[in-house]
Amino acid sequence: MPITIRSFAKINLGLKIGPARADGFHELRTIYQTVALHDVVHVDVQPGSGIEIRCNDPRVPLDASNTCYKVAERVMKVIPQGLKPDSENSHHGTAEAVPFQNQNHELTRASKVVIEIEKQLPVQGGMGAASSNAVAAMFGLEKALGTELVEGERQRIAEEVGSDLPLFLVGGTVLGTGRGERVQGLPDIAITHLVVVTPAVGVSTPAAFQRWDELAARESGLTAAEATGTIEEFGQGLFARLSEMAYPQARPASGVPAMGGDRAETLLLDLVRAGTENDFERVIFPEYPELREAKRVLQREGASYASLSGSGSTLYGLFDSADEAQTAARRVSAAGYAAVATKTLTRREYWDGLFL
Ligand code: C5P
Predict the structure, then answer these.
(1) Model-level pTM?
(2) pLDDT digits (tens, 9 = 90+) for 178-207
(3) What are the Cα distances from residue 221, in Å, to 2, 58, 216?
(4) Whose CA is nearest to atom 3 of ligand 1?
(5) Residues in contact with ligand 1 (CB, 6 Å cut-off)
(6) Mutate to test the pocket of ligand 1, among 12, 21, 26 (most ligand atoms within 8 A of CB)
(7) CATH number for the domain harbouring residue 71
(8) Residues 154, 238 share a domain
C-alpha cells in the first residue's frame, strides 16, 4: 500500500545572514513558519531493489541528486541500526546491532523504493519544497517499512541532506540557527492569513549566498568579526523577544502595552514592528527587479508585512483576515502575478495534516 503524505511549504519570518564559515556554509538566524500550501508525496516499497523517483514537473531531477533520493538512500542504510529503542525489534541493553529476523528486515533487504512527487509548490522558490519533500519521503518510508527512526537519526539524516530539512521535523513556528539546520520549536504564532506570490523565475540558493559574499566584500570594513557581531546582535534581540514572549510575567512593567496580549500574536507583531527583514532581499532585488515590484504590489494591496521567503523567488504578504487575503490575491493576480491566498500552520495542524 503506497503511503501518501502532504509535504507542506515554509516561509521565513526574517532571515539574517552571517559570515561564511570554514565549511563554506553561512551562519544564519531565521524564524521558519510552515504554511498550508503543499506538494503531495507517495512512497511505496516494492519487491526488487533501488530507488525510483517520479515527478510531474520536468524541472525536478529524478536521479541521485534529488533530495528524496538522498533521504531514501540514507534511511535504507540506517534502518538496521536506527530503529526506535522501544520498538519490538530492539534488544535493550545490548550493544549489538538490532537483529532482523522479522518481516520488516526482509523487506528492507530486498526492496525497491518508489517515491512519486506531485509538484504544486514552486521549484527553487524559497519555500523549502525540495527539503519538505525529502522529509515527507522519510516519514513515508518509515511508515511503508513499518519502522520508526529514532529522533537523533532523523535529525542526522535531515541535516546531512540539507540545511532546510530539519525544520520540517518540527513544524509550526521554528527558530533556525547554525546554517539553518539547528532548529527549536517556538510557541506557535497566531494563525495568520497570507498571500504567496510565485514569480516564474527560480533562484539558486548557493548563487544567492555567493552574491551575499560579494556584497559583504564590497562593503569594505565589514570584517568577519563585525559581521559576526551583527548576527549576534540580531540573535540577542530575537532571543530577548522570544523570552519575553515565553515568560510574559518577567517583562518589565514599562513594557509596550500592545505586547501584553496573546503571546503568539505578540511574536509576530513584535517581529514586524522591529522591522525584521530578510537579508537576501539586498542581493536578490537588484538582480531581479520584478521581485521588488511584486513586494510593492503586496504592500499596496494592504499587507501588514511583506517579504521575500528564503532566497526567493517567492514573496509573501501577511493580511489581517482570510477575506482580505483572498481579495488581495485576486487583485495581485489581476496585476499579472501568480498569487494564492493561504494561512500559517500551527505545529499541531502540521502534524495532523501530514498523512492523507
Ligand atoms: O544545505 P543546502 O544543501 O540547502 O545548501 C545548499 C548550498 O547553499 C550550500 O552548499 C551552500 O553553498 C549554501 N548555503 C550556505 N549557507 C547556509 C545554507 C546554504 O552558504 N546556511
Answers:
(1) 0.86
(2) 999 999 998 888 899 999 999 999 899 999
(3) 56, 44, 9
(4) 162
(5) 24-26, 28, 162-164, 179-180, 205-206, 209
(6) 26
(7) 3.30.230.10
(8) no
